[in-house]
Design brief:
mainly alpha
Length: 224
């Protein structure tokens, strides 16, 4: 890859990282200004039901744009090929984020809604997609330090997601809800997954075009 082209790819990755940071800023600020939503008991989507919905929507869409740019950078560097399981998973994550914004969480004061059901399943798909992408990348480039970080984060995300799913399945059993507070667990999962996207962006920013996959012939590293 020519140096100029690689510089452009690094710019795309950097903009993706900015999008991730933008999301962290907006959603993080919600935890300060929206004091009526418990960060321990209520999910992040609860912010979209109040006056600060625009901040929630802006933050999630910022993450979506950032994730698309990171995906593009990963494909351009050759770290991901399209279509591959990792690339498709990141694409699904980005689409799911848009669906989460388009269909708001069920408002308990109003009652169940079709949009709320769509929101719930889009959230589940989104949370599953990032660890799939991270583990796919980590497996392909398992000799790389960024691959190790992706594997660790992907595994942690699956563990926390599993705890959340188990908590929901056993919610009628006394004490389970207190043992695994849904809001807190979801925020831990969100932090892990946003950190994963940030790691993938940093991976694309390296001054080396692409390492060789584990077991493949080594390729010459080209610096920007």
């Amino acid at each position: 890859m020519p140096a100029l082209d690689h510089a452009r790819t690094r710019m795309i990755a950097a903009l993706g990282l900015v999008g991730v940071g933008f999301s962290v800023l907006f959603v993080g600020t919600l935890h300060v200004v929206a004091t009526d939503v418990s960060p321990v008991r209520r999910t992040i989507s609860e912010y979209a039901l109040g006056e600060h919905r625009w901040m929630f929507d802006t933050g999630v869409l910022g993450l979506c744009v950032g994730s698309v740019l990171v995906l593009l950078a990963l494909v351009r560097t050759g770290l991901l090929s399209w279509p591959s399981p990792g690339a498709v998973a990141l694409g699904v994550w980005s689409v799911a984020l848009v669906v989460i914004v388009a269909f708001e969480k069920t408002n308990r004061a109003v009652g169940p809604s079709v949009g709320g059901v769509i929101h719930r399943y889009a959230s589940l798909v989104a949370f599953m997609s990032v660890p799939v992408a991270a583990l796919a990348l980590g497996r392909r480039w398992r000799d790389d330090r960024f691959a190790a970080a992706a594997r660790i984060l992907g595994t942690l995300a699956l563990v926390v997601l599993g705890a959340i799913v188990l908590r929901i399945a056993l919610r009628r059993i006394p004490g389970v809800s207190e043992l695994v507070p849904l809001g807190l667990a979801e925020r831990v999962l969100a932090i892990i997954e946003v950190a994963t996207v940030a790691v993938l962006a940093l991976w694309s920013l390296r001054p080396v075009i692409v390492p060789h996959p584990a077991g493949a012939p080594a390729q010459a590293a080209v610096t920007a």
